[in-house]
């Protein structure tokens, strides 16, 4: 199913993001994760792609996306990066996605690693979008966006101008980088709207539930951390269960505020945690249901 059609009849969509098992993690870990996530009320599950990984590692994305569709009967979105691929490799992946019935692709450039020189065929996600649409226009394309600007863009305004190229080449729906300050997202929406971007933008939310995440993810994403969130880190950083609860609480509040501001979608970065996905989904599912079916809200 082309998930862009969901926006025709839903006010707000809800999705999860997972990653394929790392090199030494047994497959049954991800099978169990998906089995437990199966009952959650989601519109799609997206599967990340290791830009710098081996061919076998990268093919796991397609394998898992295909499993989500065939076994769990949920719509998958396969992420696909292009920075380390040539046309032949992307062509082969598209054939595989098509053969497996995966119709939705998140087109990405991928991060440029200092150790792996980028290949020449695709410079930007927009080049990948153009290539895919030429290959088969029935693929539905999603793309990434950055409420606080991509780290290589000279300004947020320039980054937004560049986003328009992705959309011109067939991206129908954007998903944001994680953010913790909703005001940054609202300002971004205003700017994209003014720049003439009218595709739905899903808000990417990552509950911070462990010290490790604070150290790695928060630092790497470059997302600004509001004082209230920092206070939760310092207050509960030494108490893993309390930090988990506080992280879920903060993310749930963020989501409720986004829904109140009529966001078109919530994309939850689950980090493959069933507990995170379940706790957030449980606390927002009736609200999303009421937004989509106001007649049932009472
Ligand atoms: P691009 O859209 O190509 O943008 C990169 C930079 O180039 C930006 O500064 C932009 O302003 C500029 N630019 C864009 N288009 C043009 C153009 N046509 N001309 C000139 N300049 C241009 N990484 C992974 O490896 N695997 C994943 O599965 C993955 N999933 C992600 C999912 C989401 C929702 C997000 C937000 C990010 C994800 N990433 C993933 C990270 C992503 O690969 C990096 O952030 C990467 O640095 C940029 O990718 P992009 O697709 O946004 O690149």
What does this structure look like?
The mean pLDDT is 94. Strands 1-2-3-4-5-6-7-8 form an eight-stranded parallel β-barrel, surrounded by four helices. By secondary structure, it is of the alpha/beta class. The chain is globular. The chain is built from eleven helices and eight strands. The protein is 48% helix and 14% strand. Helix 5 runs parallel beside helix 6, helix 9 packs antiparallel against helix 10 and helix 10 runs parallel beside helix 11. Helix 2 links the parallel strand 1 and strand 2. Flavin-adenine dinucleotide binds next to strand 3, strand 4, helix 5 and helix 6.
Summarize, please.
With 298 residues, the protein is α/β, with parallel strands linked by helices. It contains 11 helices and 8 strands.
């Amino acid at each position: 199913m082309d998930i862009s059609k969901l926006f025709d009849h839903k006010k707000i969509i809800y999705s999860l993001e997972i990653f394929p098992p790392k090199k030494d993690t047994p497959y049954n870990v991800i099978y169990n994760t998906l089995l437990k996530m199966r009952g959650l009320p989601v519109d799609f599950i997206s599967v990340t792609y290791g830009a710098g990984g081996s061919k076998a590692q990268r093919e796991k994305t397609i394998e898992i996306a295909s499993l989500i569709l065939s076994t769990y009967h949920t719509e998958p979105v396969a992420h696909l990066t292009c920075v380390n691929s040539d046309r032949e490799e992307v062509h082969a992946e598209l054939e595989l996605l098509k053969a497996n019935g995966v119709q939705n692709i998140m087109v990405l450039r991928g991060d440029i690693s200092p150790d792996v020189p980028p290949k020449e065929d695709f410079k930007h996600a927009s080049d990948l979008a153009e290539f895919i649409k030429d290959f088969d226009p029935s693929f539905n394309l999603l793309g990434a966006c950055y409420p606080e600007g991509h780290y290589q863009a000279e300004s947020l305004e320039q980054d937004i101008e560049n986003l328009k190229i992705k959309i011109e080449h067939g991206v129908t729906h954007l998903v944001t980088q994680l953010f913790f300050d909703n005001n940054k997202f609202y300002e971004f929406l205003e700017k994209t709207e003014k720049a003439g971007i009218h595709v739905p933008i899903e808000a990417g939310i990552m509950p911070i539930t462990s010290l490790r995440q604070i150290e790695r993810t928060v630092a790497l994403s470059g997302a600004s951390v509001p004082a209230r969130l920092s206070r939760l880190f310092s207050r509960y950083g030494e108490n893993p269960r309390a930090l988990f609860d506080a992280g879920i609480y903060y993310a749930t509040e963020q989501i409720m505020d986004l829904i109140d501001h009529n966001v078109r979608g919530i994309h939850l970065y689950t980090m493959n945690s069933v507990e995170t996905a379940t706790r957030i989904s449980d606390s927002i599912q009736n609200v999303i249901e009421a937004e989509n079916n106001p007649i049932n809200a009472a």
